[in-house]
Structure formats: C-alpha cells, structure tokens
Amino acid sequence: MLTMGVDIGSTACKCIIMEDGQEIKARAVVPLGTGTQGSRTVFEAALTKAGKTREEIERILVTGYGRFTFEAADSQKSEITCHATGVHYLLPTARTVVDIGGQDVKALRLSEDGLLDNFVMNDKCAAGTGRFLDVMAGVLDVKTEELGELSSQARSEVSISNTCTVFAESEVISQLSNNVPLPDLVAGIHASVAKRVAALVFRNGLVKDVAMSGGVALNSGVVRALSRELKSEILVHEDCQLAGAIGAAILAYREAKRVS
Amino acid sequence: MLTMGVDIGSTACKCIIMEDGQEIKARAVVPLGTGTQGSRTVFEAALTKAGKTREEIERILVTGYGRFTFEAADSQKSEITCHATGVHYLLPTARTVVDIGGQDVKALRLSEDGLLDNFVMNDKCAAGTGRFLDVMAGVLDVKTEELGELSSQARSEVSISNTCTVFAESEVISQLSNNVPLPDLVAGIHASVAKRVAALVFRNGLVKDVAMSGGVALNSGVVRALSRELKSEILVHEDCQLAGAIGAAILAYREAKRVS
Ligand code: SF4
C-alpha cells in the first residue's frame, strides 16, 4: 500500500511516498513555503519520481504550518506528531530531537517507542532560529548554506554578547569593521544559536541519544556548536529535513489500516 | 553654585548646567553616543552656552551607559537614579516613568518625593525599544523622527501580529507590498511598541501620574498609543530627553553641599 506525507513549511515544501509505512519510494523538496505553488509542485514531483498517479496513493496526510491550505489531503496532523514519528523512523535511538526551522526551534522528547513525551517551542523570537542565521549571512554577504563550511575554517571564536538578532547584527557589523576573520565570526554566530537552543533543550530535559532535524541540521557548524553546548553527540540523518513528511506518510499508512 | 550633569547614552550625549540644583543655565545635546567625541563636544557646548569655564563649575556628575569613559567627572551615578531625580524635577506629580531609549526600555515607580521605589528594564530584546522604530523606519524608507507625524494621519491601524522585531519587519514588508497606506502601517508599528512597553509597565505596577522620558517620548504617535494601552494620560516635558542629565546636575549639587 502506498501512502503520501506532505510537509508544508514556512520556507519549503516536502513530499514523501512510502510503501506500507516502511520504505521510502520517492522524496521531493521545493524551496517554496506555504502560500505559494510549492505544495502543488512538490506533490507532483513526488508522484513523477515514484512513477505513480494520485489514484494509486491510498491516503495522503499533510502536516506543517500551511497544512490547512492543501486540498488534496485526506487528513492533517500537527508538525510535532509527524516530526516525532519521522525522526523515530530515521534514527530509532533518538530520545531528544532538536528541530531548528526557518522561523522556530523545537525540542522534543520521545519515548523509547518514538511517541512524543514532551516538547517546548520558540516561535516568538528569531534568535536561535534559521532566521537568525539568514540575517547574519546577509550582513556577512554570504549564502546561509555556506556558513557551515566557513565556520570549519575558524581558528578561534568571536564571542557575541547579545542574544537578540537585532543587537547581535549590530555587533557583527562592528566586528566586521574591526577586520575580524570571517570564519571566526561565523563560529561565534553558530555558538550564539547553539547557546540559545541549548537553553530550550535543557528546559525540556535532555535524554540521549540526541538527534537534530530541520533545515539547519544541514549546517555542520551549528551541529558542532550545539554538540559542545549539550555535551552530547548529535545524530543527523541525511533525510533530516524530510522527517515531518516521512512521519506524515507513516501516519497516513496507520490511518489507512485503521480505516480499511 | 553651578553644577553640571552629563548623560552619555548609547546614541546621544546630553549636558546640563544648573544653578543651586534648581535652575537650568544651559542645555546641550549631541547625537553621538558613547565611544565617540560626543561627550567632549557636549561638555564644551554647554560651557560655551552658559558662558562659563570648567573652573566655575563646582562639581560634575556623569551618568549613562558610557559614564565610566568620561574623565572630567567628579563622580558617577546610575542612569536610573539620575533619571528619577530629573523627571521629578521636570514633572513633580509623576509616579510612574516610562523611559524608551534607543536600545532599552525602563519603567520606574517613584515615591511622592521623587525617590526610586522600583524599576524594571528590558535591554535584551529590541522589541519595544527605539531600535524597533529605527528598523521599521528603515523598511518604510522614512526618518525615525517622521513616524509621529505620519501616524497622526492614519485612518485605521494595521495590526502587526509578531512582537519580534525581525518577524515584524517581514510582516511590514509584506503589508507594504499589499499597498497598505503608510500612516496606517506606522500606527500599527506604534501600537506594537506600546503593547510591548505596557506589559513592562504593568509588571512594575502603574501609579498615576504617568510620565514619559527618553528620546522616543518625542514621538507623539508612541505617546498616543501608549496612553491608550495604559488607559492613562501621559505627561511629557519638552526637556524629557534631558532628564538624566538634569538629575545628574541636581545630584552633583547635593553632593557638593555634602562635601563642602
Ligand atoms: S530578542 Fe530580538 S530576536 Fe528575539 S524577539 Fe526580541 S527583537 Fe526578536
């Protein structure tokens, strides 16, 4: 049985087709968020990749910020539930999941069976989110995707004293004019994100293994800095950005079995 | 007896010369903050205006963020103490003082004699501070000083749902592209600042009369919006931006009397 999970986020849409809630048959990511053609595009891209039609998909479950805008769905579920399910599929030993998205940060605690025990979220403050990194990349005139590689070249780390994105931005601008090496500055920026996120994680309680998901998990500099702050290894799966969509496809399968 | 108060802030330096801690003899403001020539310039400007030399000033007290950088001072005192003293001089009935500066917000509660009873401060988050207004003025491509006048032309008020400066900035940009009238948008920006500041004021307890000081008190739009949020008239003195320096000059006089 084929099911589909769609994750309509604020900055990207992701789609997964799975067989029997176990094997990934197709994955698609479109860097367009809710309110755009992204959801339609990603939906069709996944069908094409799997070589299937809509009719061959037993059930579609949609999640994410923009989940109520997607009409082809059979059902919706919260991001948190889908995310927990998806991460447990990718990394079965994960008990703490740190998810840094484009505009928010979540810390999830999972049971051994991958059920959600507890979670905390920050979606009110840009500090510690992907947006903080975007703002800093803008000031440094580099791409957000280049930050991880840049920080790996750091010889030391510039300390950034302000947590607030706006105040930290001024600080980074003044450090730039002091000719501080770019990699050291980027390392400081990653440390700032890591400190902020670690506070959230500790608030929710840390149980190992720790996994990271969300787009920012692809930034190796943030992963390194957070690992240091949490005093814990951090598992990252190459499909981490797809965890929500994977979870949605798995939950669609479970629903289909219950329904049928 | 002449005394001088100098207030070295983050974005401006102010200087006051008073006679017997009672009458203002000279005032000077320089729009340069700590770490610049601002303190020296404002010091000399005030002496020139009063037609006096350094030797004729009995005592100099310096306050503000940059107070430890000013060498000509006889003593230093915290901004909060000087501010309370200065506002009580300008507006003797004020019991609650809201001070919105370039990078922070303070709420002070004064006793009937103008002594500081209690205060709360936010200097960690740009939301609700002058910096929020600066960022928004930048997005709207107007001067911060023009915001008050602009909002007075508003016909309705655009509601801004994000408190965070960074997220609110994106919201304002998207409203702009919807061709929302500028004055309505500015009114919404002022309402956002007022809500944030009002929360701080209520946390500290509100006792009437309420006065406003700091550079942002010159923005009539913020004063109006805050008055509505606090359900209270707000007293603003034309010398409100100088309250810290005035308090410093008064406290310098009291110290001189004690010393002599
Ligand atoms: S601290 Fe800065 S980034 Fe966080 S909510 Fe305030 S303005 Fe936004």
UniProtKB/TrEMBL annotation, chains A, B:
Keywords: Iron, Iron-sulfur, Metal-binding, Oxidoreductase. The keyword Iron applies. Homodimer. Pfam families: BcrAD_BadFG (PF01869). InterPro entries: ATPase_BadF (IPR002731), ATPase_NBD (IPR043129), CoA_E_activase_dom (IPR008275), Dehydratase_Activator_Redct (IPR051805). GO terms for molecular function: benzoyl-CoA reductase activity; iron-sulfur cluster binding; metal ion binding. Its EC number is 1.3.7.8. This is Benzoyl-CoA reductase subunit BadG. NCBIfam families: CoA_E_activ (TIGR00241).
